[in-house]
Each structure stands twice: as C-alpha cells, then as structure tokens.
Design goal:
The protein has about 120 residues and is of the alpha+beta class. The protein is built from 5 helices and 4 strands. Helix content is about 40%, strand content about 15%. β1 and β2 (about 90-95) form a beta hairpin.
C-alpha cells in the first residue's frame, strides 16, 4: 500500500509488473477496463503514460476513469491524504501530496460522486 502513496513513474512500473506480470500485461488489463467502462478514445501502453504515441485518452474519458477510481475506498483515501509516512525496504520517508487544490482551495473537495464537489 505504501507504493500507492509514493506513486510516481518508477513505483507505477513496479505495481504494473506485480499486478499484470509485465508493463504490457498491465496495459492489457487497463485497456480491458477501459472497454468495460465504454471508453472508446482511450488506449494504454504504460502505467504512467510517458513517451508513447499509442497511449492516449480524452479529458472526458480521463474524468470518467477518475470518477470510477474514486468509488474505490482505498483510492479515495489515498488521493485525499495530504501527508503520509511510508516505509519502503526499511527506509521511512515523509510524503506530501502535490495536488495544490487539496487543502488549499477551501471549496474544492474530492467526492465519490464527481471529480470535484464545490461546497458552499
């Protein structure tokens, strides 16, 4: 679970290899899920989306993916966590979420029903 809090390109690859057996195996799983969600303008090649012409999506479909992900309680908790301490291979590290909206814009909150919920 700590890798999820520390998610970056390297940890995305490590998670992809663990879950899908390989980067391409994980991309196949993501493409299957995209089809299941009715996303016709999304195709995955890597877990991080870098340096691949055949890795693409649209803003609308990325929003749909995000809304789907927010229904997962663990994902919801991770993206709403401003600071966390993790231990990877015996090394403890304090992490800070770089989403500048989280905690800085008082009316902007993650919601399970839409990407951003504007409070009154």
């Amino acid at each position: 679970m700590d890798l999820c809090y520390a998610l970056g390109n390297d940890s995305a690859v490590a998670l992809a290899e663990q879950i899908g057996g390989s980067i391409s195996g994980f991309a196949d799983l993501m493409n299957e899920k995209a089809k299941e969600l009715g996303l016709n303008n999304t195709h995955f090649v890597t877990p991080h989306g870098l340096d691949e012409d055949e890795h693409y999506t649209t803003a609308l479909e990325l929003a749909k993916i995000t809304n789907y992900a927010l229904d997962n309680d663990k994902f919801f908790k991770i993206v709403n966590t401003k600071e966390s301490t993790v231990s990877i291979n015996g090394i403890t590290k304090n992490l800070r979420n770089t989403n500048e909206l989280l905690g800085n814009l008082s009316r902007c909150l993650w919601s399970k029903n839409r990407i951003y919920k504007w409070s009154k």
